[in-house]
Recover the amino acids of this structure.
């Protein structure tokens, strides 16, 4: 038997000491890692563990002039299953198949799929979602979500616009007021395991969403409805491509209605009308066409309605007075061109007022020529025709006009009666408003005020106004002439019993010429001496009789009969 | 004896005992049972082991409850139950072994060495493989790693051999033969399992260090060895000796974020766990890294979860427990009734300490990744069984320490 020597004991102690010291060394290493490096690793770990789930912010409501909500949010439900939590798959499959009206095979596939979360159906009505939730099936989740909802369906569809899957505006006011309506999404940060499963009962970090602000419009649902009916009737009667209309307060620029029929269903904006031929164009192009707001996105040759502007310029510059006399043989020769009047036999001798009532082209050609390119062009610019109106809608088209250095007498002559250049209908009505309201160029707009989500704060929206683009005196003269146009002239179909209406008709031949395609229009305002409302209606490619004075003026008259009492415009004695 | 000259007074009684035991064949037959009855038993060691086992079960439950619930249809106790059964079994075996005179094993040392050598070579050819490496024998439901047996066989064999060579311990030749015995056993193990190879070399190294008089030689070996490895790495020679995956592990160790997706993934996830712990941890059961992020969380990386849940405080306490255990081994080795017993305790101390140090060093990215479990805490039946047998051996050695006067 061998004994243990002191040397051995020393060895054992040395070994134990060295091993223990190494242990202490590891403690130090741990201290370094866990105290000094900890923040870095903790943050990296946090990033790895947390799953971010967004809470949609409620989008602001859009109200009409009467405070009626026309774009709002609806609570909808998303039904999904969490595979690992389902205890009774057969009941789940049966119930979901029944309630949601889906194919059994489809539901079965999703329920039996080994995934962390399988969405069965989105956009389920809240009532149905509640019903499913009340069945209290393990593993079935019903989450609530907001969906944009338009109570009036297709009403003012091209003006309001709609939102996409991220709750973002796609067209119309929803785009223009995106920053106001949107709000700020909130987040829920939850812990998840390595497979992405969220951990139940783990502490959640929650950032509450901030709801978007509400928008109040000048648009009036009732006026809009009347205008839509009128435009639809016109379009159907005349088998036209489309018909549109704008109703505006000429003093403030507030738009009461804006219609482009056919409209589309805002609650289902991605469905083309039934029977659409998709063989020629892609579905997206057709959708873009369907969504297009023609009165601001498209330009046209305004034709005779533009004579309002020529008249204003001519009277203001002194080139013409209401009493100036003209003679119309049925045409007028400018340089080497013979420009015809619409009445080929000629209007004979007439005053300027009569010429306007007759919508006589030779009269306006002469007014234009008397002013000359420079003077006329300066009025064109002063009235604001060269720049955009600044309406609070996206995609406004610019005016297409000759450059002054390229304008000869022929161009000047054609511009004088509304041809050879293009503006939007909105530009026309805005400019006409400035001419009849005493020379104030207002900015056409829908948005009136913005209200905080809780309703506590209201901010009025301000729009630029350009004063004095025309003298009050000239403005009054133009109003009086235009009243006579409706009372006794080419616009007499636009007269409304008991009201003083001013207006002007137009029938513009579409380009290319001689194809028999026209845009007919009528612009009318009331009361003629102190206009409170102005309306422009156009119809694109009417079939059969196409004169604006014949087909559009009576529609506007009928429309006025309905809305003037509603708007509180008093009858004249 | 030089012994007596150095230790007068208090040690005299013990020395007498040793002498008496030494003369057992002639006159101690009647005394031995008496000595046994009065025999010392190292309860401190026993309680440290029991505490570590229980703590291990708690941590194992915390680590595996969530993943088990998902993998085993809501049974949160799946892993823990298996481990608890093994633990009870291993504890019984430990008590049994602690009752068997360790000299019995010393007699079998030669055969143990040969059998483990044969098995560790055989496993290369007929063993069950995982990740391309043959490590297991499958015997019905029990899987068995010869590497575990090799460690205990080596401890016993070296204790026996060095005891036999007792008069020649001063010579360098004994050291060379010892080195040969260790390396012969280490080679087949290292082929499949580098970490076990390292542990075997470490055990041999420390046992030889204690037994030998030529201590300077060991210091020289360490210095030269480390120098050689560093030089080999610097010159790029190391790449020729190691497998590709081993080289990757070294690179991942030096710069884990560059190997985020593959070799460095486990290390980084371990560091995330440790870093998330802070001073007092997230709290027991609150680890996030155990939710499938940290690979081998219940196994090699369980210390990372301990850090995450119990913080620096808990982690230091665990290391302190292991250090206490080392000191118990040291005490038993120092007071063992004979050189063989002392060598056995030294060997077990070396094994436990090296395994703990390797495991924690890997988890804290202090050294390249090798798969080593944390004794008594990591999940694994066979490993636990052999660890407990070793504890049983040492307890028996402690049992034969004569009570101090």
């Amino acid at each position: 038997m061998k004994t243990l020597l002191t040397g051995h004991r020393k060895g054992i102690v040395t070994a134990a000491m060295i091993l223990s010291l190494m242990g202490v060394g590891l403690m130090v290493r741990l201290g370094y890692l866990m105290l000094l490096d900890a923040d870095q690793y903790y943050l990296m770990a946090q990033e790895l563990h947390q799953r971010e789930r967004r809470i949609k912010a409620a989008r602001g409501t859009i109200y009409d002039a009467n405070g009626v909500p026309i774009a709002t949010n609806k609570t909808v439900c998303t039904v999904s299953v969490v595979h690992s939590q389902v205890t009774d798959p057969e009941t789940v499959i049966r119930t979901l198949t029944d309630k949601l009206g889906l194919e059994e095979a489809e539901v079965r596939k999703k329920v039996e799929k080994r995934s962390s979360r399988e969405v069965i159906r989105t956009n389920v009505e809240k009532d149905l979602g509640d019903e499913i939730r009340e069945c209290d099936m393990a593993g079935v989740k019903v989450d609530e979500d907001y969906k944009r909802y338009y109570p009036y369906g297709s009403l003012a569809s091209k003006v309001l616009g709609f939102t996409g899957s991220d709750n973002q505006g796609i067209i119309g006011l929803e785009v223009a007021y995106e920053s106001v309506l949107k709000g700020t999404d909130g987040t829920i940060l939850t812990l998840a395991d390595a497979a992405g499963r969220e951990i139940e009962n783990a502490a959640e970090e929650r950032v509450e969403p901030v709801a978007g602000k509400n928008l109040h419009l000048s648009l009036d649902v009732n006026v809009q409805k009347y205008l839509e009916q009128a435009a639809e009737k016109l379009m159907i009667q005349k088998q036209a491509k489309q018909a549109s209309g704008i109703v505006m307060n000429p003093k403030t620029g507030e738009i009461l209605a804006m219609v482009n029929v056919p409209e589309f269903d805002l609650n289902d904006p991605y469905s083309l009308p039934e029977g659409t031929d998709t063989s020629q164009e892609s579905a997206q192009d057709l959708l873009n066409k369907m969504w297009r707001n023609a009165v601001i996105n498209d330009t046209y040759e305004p034709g005779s309605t533009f004579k309002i502007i020529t008249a204003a310029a001519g009277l203001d510059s002194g080139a013409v007075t209401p009493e100036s006399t003209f003679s119309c043989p049925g045409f007028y020769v400018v340089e080497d061109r013979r420009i015809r009047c619409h009445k080929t036999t000629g209007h004979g001798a007439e005053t300027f007022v009569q010429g306007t009532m007759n919508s006589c082209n030779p009269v306006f050609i002469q007014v234009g020529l008397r002013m000359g390119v420079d003077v006329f062009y300066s009025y064109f610019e002063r009235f604001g025709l060269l720049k955009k109106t600044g309406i609070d809608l996206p995609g406004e088209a610019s005016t297409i006009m000759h450059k002054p250095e390229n304008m000869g007498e022929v161009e000047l002559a054609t511009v004088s009666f509304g041809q050879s250049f293009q503006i939007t209908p909105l530009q026309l009505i805005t400019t006409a408003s400035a001419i009849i309201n005493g020379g104030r160029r207002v900015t056409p707009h829908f948005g009136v005020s913005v209200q905080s989500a809780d309703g506590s704060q209201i901010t009025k929206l301000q729009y630029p106004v350009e004063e004095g683009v025309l003298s009050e005196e000239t403005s009054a003269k133009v109003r009086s002439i235009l009243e006579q146009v409706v009372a006794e002239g080419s616009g007499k179909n636009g007269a409304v019993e008991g009201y003083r209406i001013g207006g002007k008709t137009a029938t513009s031949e579409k380009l290319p010429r001689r194809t028999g395609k026209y845009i007919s229009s009528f612009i009318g305002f009331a009361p003629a001496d102190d206009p409170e409302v102005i309306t422009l209606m156009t119809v694109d490619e009417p079939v059969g009789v196409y004169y604006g004075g014949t087909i559009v003026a009576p529609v506007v008259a009928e429309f006025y009969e309905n809305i003037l009492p509603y708007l509180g415009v008093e009858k004249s004695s | 004896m030089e012994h007596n000259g150095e230790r007068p007074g208090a040690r005299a009684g013990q020395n007498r005992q040793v002498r008496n035991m030494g003369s057992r064949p002639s006159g101690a037959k009647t005394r031995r049972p008496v000595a046994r009855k009065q025999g010392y038993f190292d309860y401190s060691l026993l309680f440290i082991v029991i505490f570590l086992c229980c703590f291990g079960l708690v941590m194992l439950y915390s680590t595996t409850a969530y993943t088990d619930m998902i993998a085993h249809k809501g049974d949160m106790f799946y892993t823990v139950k298996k481990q608890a059964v093994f633990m009870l079994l291993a504890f019984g075996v430990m008590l049994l072994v602690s009752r068997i005179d360790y000299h019995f094993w010393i007699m079998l040392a030669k055969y143990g060495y040969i059998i483990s050598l044969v098995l560790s070579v055989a496993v290369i050819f007929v063993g069950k493989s995982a990740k391309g490496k043959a490590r297991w024998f499958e015997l019905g439901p029990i899987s068995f790693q010869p590497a575990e047996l090799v460690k205990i066989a080596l401890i016993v064999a070296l204790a026996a051999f060095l005891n036999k060579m007792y008069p020649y311990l001063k010579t360098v030749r004994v050291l060379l033969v010892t080195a040969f015995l260790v390396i012969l056993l280490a080679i087949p193990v290292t082929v499949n399992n580098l970490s076990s190879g390292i542990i075997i070399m470490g055990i041999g190294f420390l046992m030889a260090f204690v037994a030998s008089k030529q201590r300077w030689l060991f210091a020289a070996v360490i210095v030269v060895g480390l120098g050689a490895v560093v030089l080999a790495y610097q010159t790029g020679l190391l790449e020729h000796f190691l497998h590709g995956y081993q080289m990757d592990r070294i690179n991942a160790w030096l710069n884990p974020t560059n190997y985020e997706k593959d070799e460095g993934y486990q290390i980084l996830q371990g560091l995330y766990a440790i870093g998330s712990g802070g001073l007092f941890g997230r709290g027991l059961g609150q680890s996030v890294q155990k939710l499938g992020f940290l690979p081998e969380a219940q196994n090699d990386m369980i210390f990372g979860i301990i850090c995450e849940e119990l913080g620096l405080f808990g982690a230091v306490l665990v290391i302190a427990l292991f250090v206490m255990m080392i000191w118990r081994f040291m005490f038993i080795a120092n007071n063992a009734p004979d050189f063989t017993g002392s060598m056995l305790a030294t060997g077990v101390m070396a094994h436990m300490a090296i395994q703990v140090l390797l495991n924690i060093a890997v988890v804290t990215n202090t050294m390249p990744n090798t798969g080593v479990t944390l004794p008594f805490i990591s999940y694994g039946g066979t490993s636990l069984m052999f660890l407990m047998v070793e504890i049983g051996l040492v307890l028996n050695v402690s049992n034969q320490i004569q009570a101090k006067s």
Observations:
- The domain at 221-567 of chain A is CATH 3.40.710.10 (Beta-lactamase).
